[in-house]
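> tool_call: predict_assembly(chains=two)
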Amino acid sequence: MKTRHKRLILVLTGLMLLGLGAWLVLSAFEKNLVFFFTPSQVVAGQAPHNRSFRIGGMVEKGSLQRQADGVTVSFWVTDTVQRVRVHYRGMLPDLFKEGKGVVAQGKLGPDSAFAADEVLAKHDENYMPPEAAYALKKGQQANAKTSAAAATAASSKDVK
Amino acid sequence: MIPELGNLALMLALCLAGIQATLPIVGTFRNNTRWMALAGSAAAGQCLFVVLAFASLTASFIQNDFSVAYVAANSNTLLPVFFRIAGVWGGHEGSLLLWTLMLALWTLAVTLLSRQLPRATLARILSVMGWISIGFLVFMLFTSNPFERTLPGPADGRDLNPLLQDLGMIVHPPLLYMGYVGFSVAFAFSIAALISGELDATWARWSRPWTLVAWMFLTLGIFCGSFWAYYELGWGGWWFWDAVENASFMPWLLGTALIHSLAVTEKRGSFKSWTVLLAILTFSLSLLGTFLVRSGVLTSVHAFATDPRRGFYILIFLAIVTGGSLALYAWRAPKIGLGGQFSLFSREALLLVNNVLLVVAAGTILLGTLYPLFLDALNLGKISVGPPYFEAVFVPLMIPLLLLTAVGPFLAWKNDSIQAVLGRLRWLALGAAVVAALALLVFKTSVMVAVGVTLALWILFATLSQVVQRLAHAPAGASLLKRISRQPRSYWGMVIAHAGIGIFVVGVTLIKGMESAQDASLHVGQSVTLGDYEFTFSALKKIQGPNYIAARGTFEVRRGADSITTLHPEKRFYTVQKMPMTEAAIDRGFTRDLYVSIGEAAPDGAWLVRVQHKPFVSWIWAGCLAIALGGALAASDRRYRMVARQRAAASPPISSPVHSFV
């Protein structure tokens, strides 16, 4: 076999393996990318119904309930504008607390509650999961806008 | 006073690094042996001052000097003294100092152990390492100084994150950093070769032991991290495909490719440019790993800092190191050449496939790790890429690699015949097929478990039969012990590392396919069953630790009528950081671990308990240790030391020719 042919075969094999890698990445991305939605987006129906996604925000104070089996819990996740009910079976992370940030991964159930199969831990008392922080910021912006709009509406009424 | 001395030592180290980085390399162009000879003394001096700086910070920790902001943030008077020492690398600034210390030690080791290198080569290598050191020292002094004071300091420190208060914290970071930083030696060798334009078998023989040692440390470091996460995070996972883990795994994959390609370069003179490229990429990913973890880009247990100046500096530094060396590579690599020829069916060809698979695997992990960061940075939405992605991509790439791991050692260099190799492997292949069929039909395992176990046995048996075949070739009449000791250590290193992979794959496959867990809410006296095991929650008591209080459960584990063990999981509350933590209890065994962790107590006094049965976890650890041992054996091979002696005898280093930069 000529050197040129050999090199060609080697290059082709390399390209094939790279192609295999690329194909694996693309198909795995398509199936396994997990998108993030804020409670407002979920309530507005923007979240998918048959696919896993992440939701984040704050655990509403006083919303944590334990079922009779002692293992299943449910709580509200809020971005201060809207809230979504989350069910979870199992041990919650050590730093899970009402009034603190949380991120959960799972699917929307038929009752439009969120069935979480994972509630994410944070590792430090002062640290807020970035996704939860993002949801709360969006929520506060929306709140500010509504109150500003309300204020303008009120003032325009006055003018009338 | 002590912190100021430490700060001064860092500055002096920076000055010496400046000398080490510039004068020797200028000396190689000017053919000035004196300037070249400065490299060694500058490196030694730099090492001394970095050690001093590190010792100062350690002293500040031991003395509880909370006027040092970094100490106040990571320590506490109640913290036991060995955790105060580990606290030195418990945060961003100290980790950088540890990194720099490791670099200084590696540089010193190169200086001391490579006296036989041509002086110009050594000068180039030390100069490159000096530049890396400058990068880190400047970063530390200007953006992340561990000696910064806040006066007056607080009365007590904020304490080390409870998750980090563990033996793992004392061992894991130093081992990991030894690995990361160790690849800087291979990197420096490569850059030196690119600059001089000469790269031969001797070059590969010089780089090999350094790369092997670095790779061994990285293996141990990753093993420690995984082992630690398994018992400390409280839910029994050992690998999460977390961005931080990936950051250490990518250099490991490339490092694995590198040690194989270095073997080809040394034995056959092939793969030259490729080896150099791999060395550059491996070290670049080590840097990326350090920075990804420490910059605060990733938020996890490992990440501390969130200072935009730091992120910016890091990006620039990475761009210079990676971009600069790749540019140098593009310019100079043609001069190095590709090296020797080989046929399509030879050990070289198989090792090439090994390399491509490893690099592609590292690439897919890099993509999965960085893609969410890019999207977020560009404001294109928040996504996460979890274990399902990595498993879907990584496993299919590893299956052919594992198949070939067993075959590679059977092949001859340069050229071999397919028939001959198939002849040698025929019975093994048949045996593997029988095992797979048995697993599927008799034990009714899932396909993945059957595939994994078959691959693992394939590797183990092929490795064994290759050993038998090789020992049989020894001169007749020699005793078995003699036959074994006649083989070079690098050979035994390969055998043990490959066998380690087989053991590791057994563990991974069986835990993935057969683990089980059960959550239950238990009052004292109640029990929960999992498979054949019954866990009885027999007692609960309060205990007082040095800086925490805890509830400690007693669980009696029975299997039928036999009492297996008693386990004591704890729920701790660290009083300074006001942080609760789960301390799991594990009964380790040869074929299974039993894992109990307790969650929180309900108002009615019931505790949430999770019990887990984890088959063959110990095999994962044993496999990792065997892989590392293989690396250590290979690095200690006689011929690396012999080269040193021969060289020393043949040519005194001063008279060696200085190659000009053409």
